[in-house]
Every structure is written in C-alpha cells, then in structure tokens.
Design a protein that fits this description.
By secondary structure, the protein is of the alpha+beta class. It has ten helices and 16 strands.
C-alpha cells in the first residue's frame, strides 16, 4: 500500500532515479513482426520492412488514423492466447502493425515511448474495442486480446523500420510543480499547510500509479508578476501539471485567478466546479472561491 513519503525520502528517491536512469526508465526488446493490410477490417500480413512517418506506416490501411497511427501487440501475449484456446495465430491476425518481443507491454502507460531506429512511438491509447462478429478470432474463440493488450501510438519522426530491429522502452517522467501564494506563509507567520498537502497527494498518486516523476515546490507572496513568471517558467520547461494554491478569494490581494486565466489557452470548468461542490459540503464558503483549471 502506498504512503506519502517525507521530504528527505523524496529527495533520495529522485536522486536514485537520476543515478540509475536506465534501470528505472528503460528496457529493451525487438520487433518480431511488422504487419500491414490493404483494407481495414482485414488480417494484416507480415512484411520485412516498412517506412513510417507522422501518419503511421506508409501503404498500410490504417495510415493517417488519428491517435491510433500504429498498433502494437506482444508475441508473448499472442502465445498465451494460443495456449488458452488451442488455436494457432499468425502475427498480424489481431491486426497489429508491430508484434513486439521481450517487452511487457502491460507495464506501459499513456505517453510512454517505444523507440526504434531513433523514431519515437508515443503511446496514445491502451486497448481498442473488438469488431466482434466481424473479427475472425472472436468468432472462433469468443475472445480477443486487443481491447486489453493492444497499444496504439503516434509517430514522432520518420524512416525505415524492419523485422528484428531493437525496441527501446522509455517511461514517461512526469514533471509536476506546485505554487503556493500566501503573504503570511511567505513571511513565515504560519506554515504552508496546503502546499504540503498537495505534495503528499502527489507522492501517493505517483506511488499508486507506478510512474516516475520530478516534483518542484514554490512558495511566493501574492505578487501577480512573480506568479506569471513562475507559470511561464514551468510551461517553457515542459512541466506536465502545475498546481496553484492560495489567492482564490475575493480579497484585494487575491490575484491567482486573473493571472492563470490570462495564461491558459482553454478553460476546463468542470474540474473546479466539482471541487467547489465537494468542498462546500464541508465549508459553504468554498462557493465564493474563484478557482480555475485549464490547459496551456
């Protein structure tokens, strides 16, 4: 069971990952088969090599299928399926583009990367609904592994890949930041409790999800210029998630809402609506909190 770790343990954890990056973030396999088809809904046939670009495998029927440009399935999962149902299955029968070997695809998550010949395949979807009675394997076995085991990826780069090529797995390392805005906490009048609470939640989530992360914490006073500078710094340095706490009320010094609103590209109102409602169940004053969530 995951528990929030203290500051010293967290620093040790980050340093350990940095020193042993290969063991923690990467493993290596290879391509068992490359499979393509002329029409969607048909079994893919193995080929020795293909060219790929930002839209997938050139000359494959699933070329230019947004978010699912290329599909992956492991040879080990196919073998397990064969043994379970006593039916021999050829590579490509599940309509996978690339059959991998010696990689546990079940350990991959969204935004993890498979790298082949310096071409990056970034995971965009895990699983896909089976075609049911239109799927030959489902018709004969009543089961299909693509909804549970199949991975789909977008392509970053272009070039040739071939059967037997090495595959490097690189786990996504999430960069997370939190900023507390409080004149009193900044001046040492009281401890920043909400900032510590956010950090504990993040530590617990990272542990439960088994993901790698780097976390940075900032405490600033209610200064709109400082906040804007901090937010832009995290955006420019490719942070994935930025939390702010404080400065959401209706007082003269509460400026977080205005600054964040001017920086984000699109607002996501449902997140904060839900948080306000849940918070109001414990403290009705939450309904006058001016909170905002969005993407940049």
């Amino acid at each position: 069971m995951c528990k929030a770790i203290d500051k010293e343990m967290y620093i040790y954890y980050i340093k350990l990952i940095s020193k042993t990056k290969k063991e923690y973030t990467m493993n290596i396999g290879n391509i068992a088969s490359i499979n393509i088809s002329e029409k969607k809904g048909t079994i893919k046939k193995p080929v020795d090599k293909v060219n790929v670009d930002a839209k997938g495998i050139i000359n494959d029927s699933h070329y230019d299928t947004p978010y699912r440009y290329i599909s992956f399935l492991s040879a080990e999962d196919i073998k397990e399926f064969e043994q379970k149902y006593g039916r021999q299955i050829s590579y490509g029968e599940f309509a996978e583009n690339i059959t991998t070997q010696n990689i546990d695809l079940s350990q991959l998550k969204l935004l993890d990367k498979l790298i082949i010949n310096n071409i990056i395949f970034e995971i965009t979807q895990i699983g896909k609904k089976c075609h049911g009675e239109k799927c030959e394997i489902f018709k004969t076995t009543g089961d299909c592994i693509m909804p549970k085991k199949g991975l789909f990826a977008r392509v970053i780069g272009s070039g040739e890949i071939k059967k037997g090529d090495q595959i490097i797995v690189e786990k996504k390392k999430y960069r997370i930041a939190s900023i507390t805005l409080s004149n009193r906490a900044f001046n040492g009048i009281y401890e920043d409790l909400s900032g510590n609470k956010i950090k504990n939640y993040i530590d617990e989530f990272v542990c439960q999800q088994n993901i790698t992360s780097y976390y940075e914490y900032s405490l600033i006073n209610d200064d709109p210029y400082k906040l804007e500078k901090k937010l832009n710094h995290y955006v420019e340095n490719d942070y994935d998630v930025i939390f702010t706490t404080g400065g959401t009320g209706i007082g003269m010094h509460d400026i977080t809402y205005e600054v964040v609103k001017n920086i984000i590209d699109k607002e996501i109102p449902g997140i904060m609506d839900y948080i306000r409602i849940k918070s109001a169940e414990q403290n009705i004053n939450a309904l006058i909190s001016r909170t905002i969530s969005g993407v940049k």
